[in-house]
Structures are given as C-alpha cells and as structure tokens.
Automatic annotation (TrEMBL):
Residues 8-64 form the 4Fe-4S Mo/W bis-MGD-type domain. It comes from the Bacteria. Belongs to the complex I 75 kDa subunit family. Keywords: 2Fe-2S, 4Fe-4S, Iron, Iron-sulfur, Metal-binding, Oxidoreductase, Repeat. This is NAD-dependent formate dehydrogenase subunit alpha.
Length: 694
C-alpha cells in the first residue's frame, strides 16, 4: 500500500455503492488508488461519506478479479480462456443460432443498477436493436419496480419528488420500510440532524431499526406493524385524516382529479379501514395509528421516505400508491420539506430504470407501444422496433423452464444469489443454451454461464450514475480497465458482432444520444455535468438548471390521481408448521450480495449473515445467542447462526443475504407484487429450530 499523501493525481468520481451517490475524490499514484476522500463539492454528500464508500473500494484490484474472457460449450465443460474477439463472436453466433432454432423471442438481456447510465442504455439498445424484441429487464425489478409503477400512476413520474436537502425543511418525517442509517448512511445522517433540530419522527417498520433506538434521535412514534400489513396501515392513516377533516381541501381541489379523490375518500372511510379494525391486522394500537396520522397531516411540512420494506411485497405497488395518496391528501407535495421519497438501494437504480431497462418502456419511461416514441428511436438506430412488451426477469425464468427462452446476456447482476427461490432460478439458468455473464467477479450466476466477459469496476470507466434524488453525477476513469475493455466497450463489441450499428468513441457520445431521444435528459451533456458538478432531471429547456423538487406547480401527469388501495393479505400465511415470518434486509458495512464488500476489510466488522430472533421465540426453541439454527420455508431450507435480539417483535425473524453460503434466498418464495413481479422478500413463513453447523 502507498501511504496517503503520496498521490500524484486526483480524480473526482461517484461512489458505486448506494443510491445516495456521494461524490469522492480518488487520490491516485500510478495506477493505484491511495485513498478515497469525500468530495466537499459533492451535490449529494457535501463532504460526508460512510464506511463503504470511504474504505470498501479495494475490491477493484482484488485477486479474485477475472480479467480474461472465457467460454465453454456446456456448463459441465472446463472453461477456456479466449480473446475478446473469440468470446464475443461465440456469444453472437450462439444467440443467432438460438433465435434461428427457437424464434426471435428466445433470447434477452438483463441490465445492472451497478453499471452506468450509458452502459444500461447500450444493453437495452442491444436487446431491442440486436435481438429484435423487448426482453430486457433490470435488477430494479427485484427492488424498486413498484416505485416506478406506483408513482407514475399517481403523480405521473417514476421517481422521487425531492432532493435530499429537502429533509432539513421537514417538520414531521415518516420513514416506512427503510433503514437509512444502514442502507443510505449519508442521507441517514442528514435525517438525524433534522430530528435533533426538533422535527418529529415516525417509523413504520416491523423492526426497531437504529432510528428507533439512537439516543437523541429515537423515534417517538414507532409503529411496529406485522410484515405484510403495510397497505392496511396506510389505509388506516388515510381513514383518520379524512374522518377528522385533516385533508388539505384547497390543494386537492386545485391539483388532483376530483372523481378519483371522491372514490378514494369514500373507500378510506369504510369501517374496514378504521384504526380499530386495522389494529387487529397490523398489531399496532388504534391510538398509535391516530396519533401518527394527526402528526403527519398536521405538520407544516410532512415528508415520507420509504425503502424496500414498502416495495418488496405482494402489494408493493399498492403501498407506493397509498403513500402518494396520503401526500396528495395532505398537500405534502411540491415544495421543500415534503414529498414522496423512495430511497433507492443501488447506486444507479434510478438510472437503470430511466434508461429504458424495462420490457414495456423505452428510455424516459415511454411505452414501447407508442408508435411516435418508437419512430424516434427507429430513426436514430436504423431498425424496426417491436411494439410488444417483452419478458420480465421472473417471466424469463419461467419461460426458460418451459423451454421457450434459451439465451441471456446478463451484465453485472447475480440472480442466482439475489433473486428469490434460488432452486427455481438455478433450474432456469441450467436450462439455457447460452448464458453470457459480464461481471467483475466469477459470481454465483456465472456457474451456469457459457461465456464469461470480464467486467470493469467503477474506477475503470467513464460514465454517469443517477441517484435517488434524480441527480446525474459523473463517474470518471481512475485507472485503465484490467480486462482491456470497459463494460460499455464490451457491450458495443457484442452488439457489433450481432450486426448492430454502434460506434461510440466515448460514453459522452452515448449520453448525447440519450439526451437527443429522452426529453427529461435533453439538457444533459458531459460538458454541462462537468461545469455544474451534477444535474437533477428533468433537465431540459423548461428546466435548464435541473429540477431538485418536482411537481411544484402541477403534477407531471397534470392532475394528481388518487388510487383506491384495497388491502389484500399476502397468500404467504403463517401456519403451525411455519409459524414465524422471515423478513430480510441489509447491514451498514456490507452491500447486497457482498461481491464487493466481502472482498474488502469491511468483512472484519461483519463476517457472516445471522438470523435475528426475539428472546421469547428463541427461548421457546431452546436457542441461545450464537447457536446454529435450521430455517425451513415452503421453498427450501438453510442454516445460520442466531442473534437473539429485542429489535425483533415476537413472531418475526430477520436476516441479510450478503454471504452466498447463508442461503437466505433459498428460503424466500417466488410470491411477487401483483403489478410488477417485484419479489415478496419481506414475508416468508418459516420454522426455526436448533440446528447443526453446516
Ligand atoms: Fe457510498 Fe452510499 Fe456510503 Fe455515500 S452513503 S459513501 S453513496 S455507500
């Protein structure tokens, strides 16, 4: 290691971990990063950072990096190291062979929320222009797809309404199904600052997260609801607001569709949505529900922040719309301190969705069925586009098992570890005739691959990320790609091998094309990003400096639309055989499947996934802290060590999925959101018993 202070040059770039999108300055000597210093001029972080961004970047040069392309004819055959040209030619010929044999729709691709906007744009372009179908999806499918759907239905734009700084103007902050101090630490600090200044905090979460327990911050109002009952809770909050005359009638009359509001008002007033009835569903007292509703509706500025505890449910989209309903009803939209704010998990979840990674939408959330939109892309790309929506990720797996889907190009995503019901995913991957995996490490999904293309870390490429506040920030190359190609170059070469016209010389040219074809990005260019530091979309003639806060005068869709949000209980029931509910999440020092953080010193702090269990449930089963336990669900079984914790409520257990050997997703089921197929990671009925060390 080179001591800090010996750096020869510095490069401003953006953290590649969470959706906060902190700016960093990489200090470099030769080709080696000496340290990462939080950028004081970073638009999202103003000089702050967390342990992941500051210390967990050494994975970029970890010996596990795969830097040479590889191919094998079957998943039982040994890998052969080959040249880029041979690997790409083999992949292209296999995709064409599959399409000739099984049809145009038998192949597709998956983009990554870890990669840049430019890279995800190229992958969806390759699928649409090269494969001739819309079988492209993003790993956002399994996290925030309900946000995209729910906010578009109600507000008209598939994105959060506010910049992070807005929280400093909030009087009441409601955090639902999010754990900002672990998942979005720099924003979590901003939120805690506001709470210390005197804002009220309401936490709606099954677990006593840090915000409930931290001294001087502790939420006065913790609504510890049962997992799976979010929609009942939001309806009860709405019931109180309507029944007690707390609606902002002037805002609703001016800004929202009157018929939809009337239908919603009638719905929420039904007895089934009363706090007394909902208390029996959620386990939260009617008084606590009433108090929270009055507090939020009565605030000068009430802001809602939410995370995957909202989206990863069978009613994830319904809950997102319920949150938007509540914000519109109370007039908490369109100014600092308010809004509906999804805390995006990965660094570029927002961007991968913006870039047309969904099978029904081209870049800018415009339907593939819209002929005028297609024509614009067709004119630029020189192809004819398919007007039919393609397959979502779970549909790809189902089609693979059914035998109609045979080839897939996966960039920077590890479905075999991160997607639910691992057995089903593995069966689908095993049935493919050509799986191309592009990643920086040989991940779990690569075990089923026929072609492995080495990926590039964020330090090895130029591009942009878009964070949870729609902030587009530059990623700048710090060192040359270890494999010789950045991801966008590999995708371009694969597209060329498929006969697609692509000849970008630099990612800035890709952004220029995005801007030309996507109205909300029309004012974005690398020159403008370099001059401004970052830009928040929409950024165009109507808003040349970008848009920190949306929906200020009117909603993107014109009038806001209330949606009736009926509570439909999940089909994942607890029974005598499976009496506990398992819910999953993340911890501060690790990151998702851990491919990066597990290869850094962060592992020293948290080196394994554990099962958190309430003392009563542990005592019932004779389980002590640190014991190995056996976890069984309808989908599968695994073993973990237990952590007995009063953070849990009785009847609910919790774990993370940072380590592949923990098998958390072996037990999660393939239940999913009714609108988007986002998996129901947050509710799995399980039994837990004392077990042997595996
Ligand atoms: Fe990176 Fe998120 Fe930490 Fe910022 S808060 S340093 S973006 S992981």
């Amino acid at each position: 290691l080179i001591a800090a202070g010996q750096a020869q040059r510095s490069v401003a770039t953006t953290c590649a971990y969470c959706g906060v999108g902190c700016g960093f300055v990489a200090e470099v000597k030769g080709e080696q990063v000496v340290r990462m210093v939080p950028d004081k001029s970073g638009g999202a972080n103003a000089g702050h950072a967390c342990v992941k961004g500051r210390f967990a970047w050494s994975y970029a040069t970890h010996p596990d990096r795969v830097t040479t392309p590889m191919i094998r004819e079957s998943i039982d055959a040994p890998w052969r190291q080959v040249s880029w040209d041979e690997a790409l030619a083999y992949a292209a010929s296999e995709f064409r062979r599959i399409q000739a044999k099984y049809g145009r729709l038998a192949v597709g691709g998956i983009t990554s929320s870890r990669c840049t906007n430019e890279e995800t744009y190229l992958v969806q372009k390759l699928v649409r222009a090269g494969f001739g179908n819309n079988n492209v999806d993003t790993c956002a499918r399994v996290c925030h797809s309900p946000t995209g759907y729910g906010l578009k239905q109600t507000l008209g734009e598939s994105a959060g309404t506010q910049d992070f700084e807005s929280v400093l103007s909030a009087d009441v902050v409601v955090v639902i199904g999010a754990n900002p101090t672990d998942g979005h630490p720099v924003f979590g600090s901003l939120l805690k600052k506001r709470i210390r200044q005197g804002a009220e905090l309401i936490v709606i979460d099954p677990r006593a997260i840090d915000l409930v327990r931290t001294p001087h911050v502790a939420a006065a109002h913790h609504l510890a609801l049962r997992p799976g009952t979010n929609v009942a809770m939001i309806n009860a909050l709405a019931h109180v607001i309507v029944a007690e005359g707390l609606v902002d009638e002037a805002f609703v009359a001016e800004r929202c569709e009157p018929e939809a509001f009337a239908a919603w008002r009638e719905f929420v007033l039904q007895q089934e949505n009363s706090p007394e009835v909902v208390s029996g569903i959620t386990g939260v007292s009617a008084d606590a529900i009433r108090t929270a509703a009055r507090l939020y509706a009565g605030a000068g500025n009430g802001a809602i922040y939410y995370g995957l505890g909202v989206t990863e449910h069978s009613q994830g989209s319904t809950m997102v719309m319920g949150i938007a309903n509540l914000a519109m009803a109370t007039g908490n939209i369109g100014r600092p301190g308010v809004g509906v704010n999804p805390l995006r998990g990965q660094n570029n979840v927002q961007g991968s969705c913006d870039m047309g990674s969904f099978p029904h939408e081209l870049p800018g959330y415009r339907s593939v069925a819209d002929a005028a939109v297609r024509e614009a892309f067709e004119a630029r790309w020189g192809v004819t586009l398919d007007p039919e929506p393609g397959l979502r990720i779970p549909n790809m797996f189902d089609a693979a098992i059914a035998g109609s889907y045979k080839g897939m190009y996966v960039q920077g995503e590890d479905m075999a570890q991160s997607d639910p019901n691992t057995q089903h995913v593995q069966a689908a991957l095993r049935s493919l005739e050509c799986l191309v995996v592009q990643d920086i490490f040989f991940n779990e999904t690569a075990k089923f691959a026929h072609v492995f293309l080495p990926g590039a870390s964020f330090l090895e490429k130029d591009g942009t990320f878009t964070n949870a506040e729609r902030r587009i920030s530059r990623v700048r190359k710090v060192m040359e790609p270890l494999s010789g190609k950045a991801d966008w170059q590999a995708t371009q070469a694969l597209a060329q091998a498929l006969g697609v016209a692509m000849d970008y010389r630099h990612p800035s040219e890709i952004m220029d094309e995005i801007a030309a074809l996507t109205p909300s990005f029309a004012g974005v260019s690398y020159d403008r990003l370099d001059a401004a530091g970052s830009l928040q979309w929409p950024c165009n003639d109507a808003s040349p400096a970008g848009t920190p806060i949306m929906h200020t005068e009117q909603f993107t869709r014109g009038l806001g639309r209330f949606v009736v949000t009926e509570y439909v209980p999940t089909t994942e029931k607890v029974t005598r055989r499976f009496p506990l509910i398992l819910t999953t999440g993340r911890i501060l020092s690790q990151y998702n499947v851990g491919a990066q953080t597990r290869r850094t010193a962060n592992t020293a702090w948290h080196g394994e996934d554990r099962l958190d269990i309430h003392p009563l449930d542990a005592a019932d089963r004779g389980i002590a802290d640190g014991d190995w336990v056996h976890i069984e669900s309808r989908a599968g079984e695994t073993r973990l060590r237990a952590r007995v914790s009063e953070r849990m409520q009785p009847g609910v257990v919790y774990t993370t999925f940072h380590f592949p050997n923990s098998g958390a997703n072996v037990v999660t089921t393939d239940n999913s959101d009714w609108a988007t197929n986002c998996p129901e990671y947050k509710v799995t009925a399980v039994q837990v018993s004392l077990g042997e060390q595996p």
